[in-house]
Amino acid sequence: MRTQQSIEQFGYRQELHRGVGLADLVFYGLVFMVPIAPFAIFGLVYAESGGMPVLAYLVGMIALLFTASSYAQMVKAFPLSGSVYNYAGRGIAPPVGFLTGWMVLLDYILVPSLLYLVASIAMNDVIPAVPVWAWVIGFVAVNTTINLRGIRMTIRLTRVMIVGALVVLALFLLVGVWALLQGKGRGFSLAPLFNGDTFSWPIVFAAVSVAVLSFLGFDGISMLVEESTGGSEQVGRAMRLALVLAGVLFITQVWVAALLVPDPDGLLTSRSDTAFYDAAAVAGGEWLRGVTSIATALFWGLANTLVAQVAVSRLLYAMARDRQLPAFLARVSVRHSVPANAIMLVSALSVGLGIWMSLRDDGVGVLSSLINMGAMVAFVVLHVSVIVHYTLRGRSGAWWSHLAAPLIGMAILILVVINANVLAQVLGLIWLALGALALLVLYLLGRRPVLGGVPADRF
Amino acid sequence: MDRLPLHHDLYLIAHGQAGKLLIHPASMALGLAGAALLELALDGRVAVARGRVAASVPAADDGDAFAGDLLALVAGEPGDVRTPIKKAAGDAYERTRETLTDSGVLRRTTRRVMGVLPTTRYEPADIASVVRASSGARSAVEGWRQPDARCAALCGLVAVLRLEEELYLDQPSGQLVGRLREISRESSREVAELVGVVEGLIGEAAVAVYR
């Protein structure tokens, strides 16, 4: 009842059916994050971290646990299904919400391109005769058709996909550990966690800036707050649980893979996109390479794109409905009950960017860095929102959750952003500048950002 | 002949001659529930203002069970106008179809696809009922007759459900939708507001995480 009243307070009413429990929230987050996400970017994280991918994932998990804590606080204050766009807009000010939404849009709008590219690289590893760009077109065509037909993930399908991914992961771990016991690879070692020869904090944070990609999507759980049986409290718990579960899975798989890498020194410089599949081949032979490649293609190219498409459509729809993006993005197809314009826009972008990036050696790295840059900046603003909303405006005495935790989380993320790929930093700044320009145009047109329940004249 | 309830007219317009639904079931259900609430509002049985709804008369059995239940829903839980529409949409389609079948407007037919798989369709028993359902909206668009509030409501719903082609008017789609929206807007405040609410709900349904 309290949640219901809170929703009404912001000019909305709870409309979505409350029927999603804790386990399904966690499963949804896991599908969004992909339990086998490191399969695709392992080579990149290995190279960036100087051969310490486990440390990169550990630091990434800790950083995002602070972010999850701030999400939980903002979901509690504003129990609306939205994104960080909503929380920054309501917690700080609508113009800040616009710019945060703009930055997180970089993450959401590029994610499908990366998913298609990774899935295509995985399929190209299985069938090299078909070039990556052709796989990109194929994946986009299949997914666009599915999305335009209005086919969605269901709770049951989410569970099936999670079980499927966990079976493949268990298979890899069993075969991998068995191979290590048989003397393949480098045997058990702590080097993937800490290597004194290569360790330095800038290297670790640079690697975290790539590794966090695997965790992105945990925030998607907040979209289900209005359907959650336990309201905002349960959503916060689910985020933490999903992050820890994913972190444990990621750390375990990259640890085993790092010990099986056939040419560790070569991987430090080559940043191979197929390093994980090479490690799988060392452990179990070509069949395990095939299984891990196809699992990546299916999970990234089909399951994850379904949820990613819904997420980006929701954000585009919400911003367009609030008149902060062109109105055509808020139009939906009544015939299929889908946001057809948003789907077509994202598909067109995905084909263009996917093909362009498939022709670059560092395509996965560039896309990952850009996506992470958008998300990291948005998460920093989320931490600021907690401090502004609770500590500055609300005079909260909960110093840990409303001041210290967001400050620590923000500090880690700022270090990650500072040490990220320079190209990503430059493009991120250009994107932010474009957002500021768009905001200026909105003001000049007399359409200053306004969110339901937040008066425009307050700012 | 007695006029059919608004949601019955909308049902008939939204189906092809073979009984095939022309739009997504979720959009249709919201449209039907919105149409029933519009009818209640135009009859003065519920009052709608600034996103809120309340019953003006006690719930009573007036022959249309669906509208009666919707009125009882509003009477039992006055407040946000979107709530009863969302709740009533749950079984709006099946109940409307059942009522139209019972009253003889629709005819249940079963065929076998490729001689094996049985499929059931609900076809109009008389195509004249479909023509009558859309005649008001056609007349309003063509300017043959001044639309009343009920006709304006139907025009608005036809526009937001993108059923303009079913009016069989020789006008470009965009222009026709624009005219239908204009008729709806120029009618009563309640019509404009409720049509807007239905459109908003259709948008939200289209971006829902789970259906």
UniProtKB/TrEMBL annotation, chain A:
Record field: transmembrane: 21-42, 54-75, 130-148, 160-181, 201-221, 241-261, 297-317, 338-359, 371-392, 399-418, 424-445
Gene3D superfamilies according to UniProt: Amino acid/polyamine transporter I
Any one GO cellular component localisation term in the record: plasma membrane
Location(s) in or outside the cell: Cell membrane
Membrane topology classification: Multi-pass membrane protein
Pfam families: AA_permease_2
Record-linked InterPro entries: AA/rel_permease1 (IPR002293), APC_superfamily (IPR050367)
Keyword Chloroplast in record: no
Keyword set, alphabetical order: Cell membrane, Membrane, Transmembrane, Transmembrane helix
Any GO molecular function: transmembrane transporter activity
Stated name of the protein: Amino acid transporter
From TrEMBL, chain B:
Keywords, in A-Z order: Golgi apparatus, Lipid-binding, Membrane
Superkingdom of source: Bacteria
Gene Ontology MF terms: phosphatidylinositol-4-phosphate binding
Compartment(s) where it occurs, according to its Swiss-Prot or TrEMBL record: Golgi apparatus membrane
Membrane topology: Peripheral membrane protein
Pfam families found in the cross-reference section: GPP34
The protein's name: Golgi phosphoprotein 3 (GPP34)
Residues making up the signal peptide according to the UniProt record: none
GO CC annotation, single: endomembrane system
InterPro entries xref list: GPP34-like, GPP34-like_sf
Predominant cellular place of this UniProt entry's protein: Golgi
